[in-house]
UniProtKB/TrEMBL annotation:
This is Peptidase A1 domain-containing protein. CDD domains: pepsin_like. It comes from Ceratopteris richardii. The keyword Hydrolase applies. The lineage of its organism: Eukaryota, Viridiplantae, Streptophyta, Embryophyta, Tracheophyta. It comes from the Eukaryota. The active site is at D14, D229. The keyword Hydrolase applies.
């Protein structure tokens, strides 16, 4: 919830960008009614933020140091501290962007333990007046929560202002339903797998380094730096690693290949449905030796009766390696910017072992 009085926004979580933005003072925004996205409700609508409707809202000046970042920059005409800091974010999807100006307002947070109550914290976010491309087609109809490492992001702001003691957060996506968790100021539990974050300049992404991919005891050596990006639907790998892994998977799956003229190259027929009960596990080993068993690296295609007719390895080739959202189900991931570490542990997203002193947003 944001502002005074508060408004609730259903934002998409994105570790591949830094700025939280919500529809605001709209010039061109996504439709606000849920029915536009195929959700039949009784008149429910997405919230729209208005700078004049929140008593705690104020513009970030174009002279503020935070206006010099990867998303925001002072215009050449910036000559007064009363001028707003404008921003534009262009996403990987073709012709997809958001633009507007940056405001400061309060974010309402709940403590993990219900008896600890709640609090508010001052943050910066985008008043998103103009959306283009996929953002007008329901990709993030009510805004996007950038969780990247830059100073303007919410985790960095909370840590800088002493709201949380560590510039860290965890997030979790369940495998079976749409439940999830976002927790600020939490450190990874001792003993769980971890790997160093790869330092990059400018520090705009969370990058982790792999050493190999394994399936049923067979492995492909692959020293790749991969961006961890919740905003990318499907995982991507550089072509040579992608092909080697795809062929290794093909040798392990006892089903005829299916030629799909579309997104995926490695697909298999399910004329024998029992194959779905014994699909091989994909394991990724990272720098430092810790490994991660991907809960479900496959994409299933069903007929009109809901029967799976074929399935594919949910990876596509790209010059930029990305761990996408399809690999993230069933785990809680810990990002610690101060320790430069990334950790993970299996989770249902419904049970917490976090201390009551941390702040939590439920998503």
């Amino acid at each position: 919830m944001i502002g005074t009085p508060s408004k609730t926004f259903l934002v998409a979580l994105d570790t591949g960008s830094d700025l939280l933005w919500v529809p605001c003072d709209c010039q061109q925004c996504s439709p606000t009614n849920w029915a536009s996205y195929g959700v039949q409700t009784q008149g429910l609508e997405f919230a729209v933020y208005g700078t004049s409707s929140s008593s705690t809202s104020k513009n970030l000046s174009c002279t503020n140091s935070l206006c010099s970042s990867s998303v925001a920059s002072p215009s050449s005409a910036c000559s007064s501290n009363t001028q707003a800091c404008e921003y534009t974010i262009k996403y990987m999807s073709s012709d997809t962007s958001t633009s507007g100006f940056i405001v400061q307002d309060v974010l309402h947070l709940n403590y993990e333990a219900p008896e600890s109550g709640n609090t508010t914290a001052s943050i910066y976010f985008g008043c998103a007046q103009l959306q283009t491309g996929d953002l007008l087609q329901g990709v993030a109809p009510n805004g996007l929560f950038g969780l990247g490492p830059e100073d303007i992001s919410v985790p960095s702001t909370l840590a800088r202002n002493g709201v949380i003691s560590t510039n860290s957060f965890s997030m979790c996506f369940s495998s079976g339903d749409s439940s999830g968790r976002l927790v600020f100021g939490v450190e990874a539990l001792s003993g769980i797998p971890s790997t160093p974050l790869v330092p990059i300049n400018p520090s705009v992404y969370y990058v982790i380094a792999t050493t190999k991919f394994s399936v049923h005891g067979n492995s492909v050596d692959a020293s790749e730096n991969l961006i961890f990006d919740t905003g990318t639907s499907y995982t991507t790998l550089p072509p040579s690693t992608y092909q080697s892994l795809g062929e290794m998977m093909n040798n392990q799956i006892n089903a005829p290949q299916f030629q799909l003229n579309g997104t995926f190259d490695y697909c298999w027929n399910t004329s024998d449905s029992s194959i779905l009960d014994s699909l091989p596990t994909l394991t990724i080993t990272f720098n430092g030796g810790s490994s991660w068993d991907v809960s479900d690296p496959y994409v299933r295609f069903v007929d009109s009766k809901g029967n799976v007719v074929f399935f594919c390895l949910g990876i596509t080739p790209s010059s930029t390696g990305i761990i996408g959202h399809n690999f993230m189900g069933g785990y809680e991931f810990f990002f610690n910017q101060q320790a430069m570490s990334f950790s993970w542990a299996p989770s249902t997203c419904k049970r917490s072992t976090i201390s009551s002193s941390t702040l939590v947003l439920s998503c």
